[in-house]
Amino acid sequence: MREVERGQDGSYKYNFSNFRTGTSFLLYAEANGRYKYLQVERVANDRDRMLTRTPIKRRERALGENCFVWKMGYVASYLASINRLDCIANDGITLWSRFYSRSGVVGDSWQAISLDRRPQAVSDAKPPADMLDWSRWHQLEKTKTSQPLENDFEVVLDGGGMSSSIRRHSDVTLIDTKYANGVRHLELSGPTITLHYGTLGGSRSLIIRRHAPVAETGIKTLDRSDFVLGEMCLWFDVGGGIEDAGKSECQTVDGVPLKIEQFSRGGHTSLTATRISRKSLGDRSTDPPADVFKWP
């Protein structure tokens, strides 16, 4: 299934759902066709987000045809506060949808302005073929503010059943973290692009976002140091002031993290470098692995 919304500025929002595989795609594109945001999800057990519907016993008309009003709900208790009504035609097509606040005020809403029932080619319901092409999203930017290539590095840190590989080339950093329970988290950050990818059991998620250059903030120097692999490092608070969570790194003079500590309500993790390599890396060295972009 494909849904397309066009903004007043000419931008597009695409929604694609593959009901057979359970994969959903959300894509934002600028008026010139340049991709701005992508979210892909495949949930192994999507019961929490399953919709339930209760008839309101009210009939309305939209686009010259009858539709019946249903109160839509979610199986998950944490989504129970969502108050939504849909008007659905006899063949299952939603002609309007409205979200209400607790006081009964209409918030987000949409209504069909045209409807064309006709056979659809399978290709019409598929997302753009280049949506998952990394080269379509990212080209390495060599700007005056980019770090020199002699600051490229790769470091592997281990601890508590976790392993994290951090690779930096120019001004792009790729962090690949694997946990003892099989969870994997991949994070890429650059001057104007970020990528987050995660796996948990049979579930997967991917988010790619383009953004304006953002100045680095929230890093504070801590009054302590350490020695790891024969090198001295200084501790920095890099948590960015997140409530109920914290992160600190012991970095060398050229920015290589040799120790990482993370705190949250769920506990504390500590990683220590076991291997470090400093050498000029190629432009493709920080590309995410190919499996990140393979979705059914």
Key terms:
296 residues, mainly beta, 1 helix, 1% helix, elongated
Question: Your description of this structure?
Answer:
By secondary structure, the protein is mostly beta strands. It is 1% helix and 52% strand. The chain has one helix at 134-137, and strands spanning 2-6, 12-18, 23-29, 35-42, 51-62, 65-74, 83-88, 94-100, 106-111, 153-159, 162-169, 172-178, 184-189, 193-200, 203-210, 220-228, 231-237, 245-251, 257-264, 267-277. A hairpin with a 5-residue loop joins strand 3 and strand 4 (35-42).
- Structure class: mainly beta
Could you report the average pLDDT, rounded to the nearest whole number? 85
Strand content: over 45%
Low-confidence parts, pLDDT < 50 over ≥5 residues? 140-148
Supply the number of helical segments.
Answer: 1
The count of DSSP E runs of length 2 or more, i.e. the number of strands, is 20
